[in-house]
Every structure is written in structure tokens, then in C-alpha cells.
Amino acid sequence: MLSLGTLLLAAYETAKISVPTIVDALGGGADVRVCDRRLDSWSAQLLKQAGVSLQTAGLELIEPKTSYIVMSNHQSLYDIPVLFQGLKIPIRMVAKKELFRIPIMGGGMRGAGFVEIDRSNRHQAVRSLNAAREQMLRDHISLWIAPEGTRTEDGRMGEFKRGGFYMAIESGFPILPVTIDGTLAVHRSGSPSVHQGETVKVTVSPSLDPGEYGKPRVRELMTEVRRRISEHLPEAQR
């Protein structure tokens, strides 16, 4: 087990990539590939500091140069670097507006193309996604959404919220279900400690076309995405 110092190192690594991204944005825009390299370096360093051993399965199901709405379970703060390193595709995050208010990190997220949403306003969230759509298509960027809305507290997957699924339906992008198993053992919500040397597995399931369901069948879409994610989790976490 590592102390609070590991989390502080993670915060330092985050600031280290955020500051130059803010500077780039102020100078006229951050180049997407430069941001990709920074995010790759950042995520690799965080997993190295925590001694995470990463395993992957199903990567052959990812179509090259396709933009996805990536949906996964949400166990830990380490889910984000795990997704960057596990999927190895350009990803940005849909993040609640409160995160964009954090000094330095918020500016870096905005400069790198992360999508800011107000979780209480679905129409605003859809507008934010539509604004990001052109860049996603042009640069083959995928967008991560945690349909639970927040990290699990007891280890079990929480109830899925509809907002992300409405966003996916209106965006036209396919949904890529991804299962993360093991980050809860690395760091649990509210804990000051990081457990070193854990194994984390990322499993990709076949994608879905949300347009085939549409808004009238959004509950069916939610159920199917949840099924594909949960089937690769231990029974106690489903």
C-alpha cells in the first residue's frame, strides 16, 4: 500500500500536462496529436507509479478510425488512465462541469477537447456533444461516458442513467461497451491510499448502433449495454 504521496504524484503528473495544454489553447489551439501524446505519457506514468499490471481482451473488435461512445463501469480514479493505456485509441472524456472548475486541470481538460456537461441539463449535454462532433469525426476521437455517473462505493455496478444513452442516440456514434475489472483494488473512492502491484483487466465487447434502438427503446439499449459490461465482471460486482 502506498500513502497519500502517490495521489500527490498523480496530481503533479496531471498538472504537468495541463499547463502546456492551456498555453497551447491560449495561443490559438492545442494540436490533437500533441494532446494524445501527452495523455498517453500521463496515463502510462500513473499506472507505472501504482505498479498496475494491465491485461486486455477484445481489442480486435475496435474498428480503426471509427469514433465511438465508449461506455464502461466506473470503479476508480484509475479507470481513466487504464482506458487510455488499454484501448490505445484517441479518447476524450465527458466530464461534469464541476471538474472544469479545478485550477489548472480544468483548463487543461478544456484545451485538450474534453466535453463539459451539466448533468442536470440533458439538452445542454447534447449540445456539447454536437459541438465536439466535427473534431471527433475528423480526428477519429472516441468519447468516454460512465453511465453510472460516478464511481462505485461498494464495488457493485450502480444504476445506469439515461442521459449518456440519449446523447449516444442523438450523436449517431456506435456505443463500445468496455469492462474494467481491478481498479477498485488499486484505489477506492474516498481513500487516501493506493495499493501497488494490482492486475487490471480491460475487456472490449461488440459495439452497438444506438440508432437501431432510438429514444422509445432507450431502456432496452441500457439493459443490453449493461449486460455486455457486467458479463466480464465477478458476480459480486454486477
Structural notes for this entry:
It is a single chain. This protein is α/β, with parallel strands linked by helices and 238 residues long. The chain has helices at 4-26, 32-49, 79-87, 105-112, 122-139, 163-171, 183-186, 218-230; strands at 53-57, 69-72, 91-96, 115-117, 142-145, 175-181, 199-204. Strands 1-7-6-2-5-3-4 form a seven-stranded mixed β-sheet, with helices on both faces. It is globular. The mean pLDDT is 84.
Strand fraction equals: 5-15%
General form:
globular
Indicate the radius of gyration in whole angstroms. Answer: 17 Å
Strand order, largest beta sheet: 1-7-6-2-5-3-4
* Secondary-structure element order, N to C: HHEEHEHEHEHEHEH
Share in helix: 40-55%
Oligomer designation: single chain
Number-wise, the strands total 7
User: DSSP helix count?
Assistant: 8
Helical/strand content category: alpha/beta
From the N-terminal CA to the C-terminal CA, the straight-line distance is: 26 Å
Mean pLDDT: 84
Low-pLDDT runs? none
Largest sheet: 7 strands, mixed
